[in-house]
Design brief:
2 copies of one chain form a homodimer. Chain A is α+β, with helices and mostly antiparallel strands and 313 residues long. Chain A has helices at 9-16, 61-73, 114-131, 144-154, 160-173, 216-227, 237-250, 255-281, 295-306; strands at residues 24-29, 36-43, 46-53, 91-93, 96-102, 183-186, 195-198, 201-205, 212-215. In chain A, the strands form 3 sheets. Chain A has a 5-stranded antiparallel β-sheet with strand order 1-2-3-5-4, with helices on one face. In chain A, strands 6-9 form a two-stranded antiparallel ribbon. Chain A starts with 8 loop residues before the first helix and ends in a 7-residue tail after the last helix. The A-B interface holds A 19-22, 43-46, 48, 69, 72-77, 80-87, 100, 102, 119, 122-123, 126, 129-130, 133, 201-203 and B 19-22, 43-46, 48, 69, 72-77, 80-87, 100, 102, 119, 122-123, 126, 129-130, 133, 201-203.
Amino acid sequence: MSVYTNIEQQELETFLKQYSLGALLSYEGINAGIENTNYFITTENGEFVLTIFEELKAEALPYYLTFMAHLSDHGMPTAHPIADLQGDYVRVLKDKPAAIVRRLEGQNVLEPTSEHCTTVGHALAQMHVVGESFSGALANPRDIAWSEKTAQRVLAQLSDEDQQLLKNEIQYRKQPLASNLPQGIIHADLFRDNVMFMGQTLTGIIDFYYACNDYLLYDLAVTVNDWCSLETGTLNMDSYTALLNAYCAEREFQPQEIEAWEYMLRAAALRFWLSRLQDKIFPKDGEITHTKDPNIFKNILQSRINDVPSLNP
Amino acid sequence: MSVYTNIEQQELETFLKQYSLGALLSYEGINAGIENTNYFITTENGEFVLTIFEELKAEALPYYLTFMAHLSDHGMPTAHPIADLQGDYVRVLKDKPAAIVRRLEGQNVLEPTSEHCTTVGHALAQMHVVGESFSGALANPRDIAWSEKTAQRVLAQLSDEDQQLLKNEIQYRKQPLASNLPQGIIHADLFRDNVMFMGQTLTGIIDFYYACNDYLLYDLAVTVNDWCSLETGTLNMDSYTALLNAYCAEREFQPQEIEAWEYMLRAAALRFWLSRLQDKIFPKDGEITHTKDPNIFKNILQSRINDVPSLNP
């Protein structure tokens, strides 16, 4: 989708009176984002992003926003949310929760080099390490129950072959895992379009609205599947080696993680195959964005089943 | 002074292991600052300033640093301090307290236009408004007792005329003030060299190491004396009108403040005349900076005595 909620200049000026950002100089809608309305706003105090949350419940927002603040406070390249004059990060705008964060510089890199993957591997591990001192907790809404429910919803629309693949993966997803797999707060959606670079420098990690507490290794699997897959779904081994080496330089893997790696790669591929199938088969009202292609993640899933890479590259 | 405490690359790399800023790429000493050692440091995560506190006691640092964080959290152009992996802003480096903050862009404007003064007036008032929700408290170390003590220390070195001026002002400084003058956290040193601009945009307010709880009007007087004085000490009325109009657009003056304005302007001029006299007469060991000229503030003081400007320009 692009901008969902339309804001008039006067409304925005009134809204900004609750902050200490100085006068509004300009604003424009951002043509990106699946579940929120975003505006770039420029005030006397600088450049910011206003997000109006179209679907997310206000209850979960403090978790996302305080985690963004926590990472930024530790020097990570994340957008710090802006507190209003009462000290709150979340306000209401047009009857919807809304927040302002600092705008970060940089551009997405859609064809990353191994060097970019090294940087992303470092940053992801840093996020996991810094997350250890974050006290918030939120279960992953895209859990096994969600996978099963979503699979039921989309199954009838799939080819026989895809139905079989989906059923197999749901079954595979239910296997018990080692109880001591490291957990923590994860980004859960660290795709290329959520990371910004200026040249080789990572300048922004954005969109924390899937962050949750789950296996750290699952977060790595989500990241690897997006950053290190060729169009066919198979791994680009140079990117893969670069990302993993960088990650484990900051956080060493434990033996039970090496065991669970195939599971995590397949679970991560399944989650995005399912959400994309759902978005395609049941588009939301008013959605004007291009739907993302589910087959990319079917291919990634099949590739991970056929050719399991080692966690120690 | 310029860099006081010398840091080797290896020491800095070891120090940075307590943070999550990625690898050190480069660092250089900053030839500025009166009481601290500062280094620009560049890591994989961006550009930062490392400050080693040569004189400030570690006890007061959390007050300064959490206030900087508070302002930055509210969208003010102040440097956010970086928390270490334990969540602390202050660490020890070479047996001295040290902290890392984000580096801000921009340059000092030593010959400000009225437009710059408008921007500074807005920013100072915003700082006072945002400070209302800050819970820390610290008395002003440059209070009347300090003024008296410092006057005693420097008096014998002054001409008869300057001695008389100083004695008069100490006496004037002791008069009782209205008990309901608005107080709050103030910067207390918002000189031109502590504000950075890019063009007409204020991009950085720095050096919060004189921040304290005191009269808001005193902070305005400190700011006006530096930003709006001609070389002779007399006011540039265009700058003065611009700064005051901008300030009172964000925070209205109260009648007792209008009464106290002459007092605040003279107290603010006295404080910097005294500290500069002290720095000149009793230079610190190892100090290699140029001492700032005390006479500038003697002239400002005399000008404020002779020609009291209105707080409602």
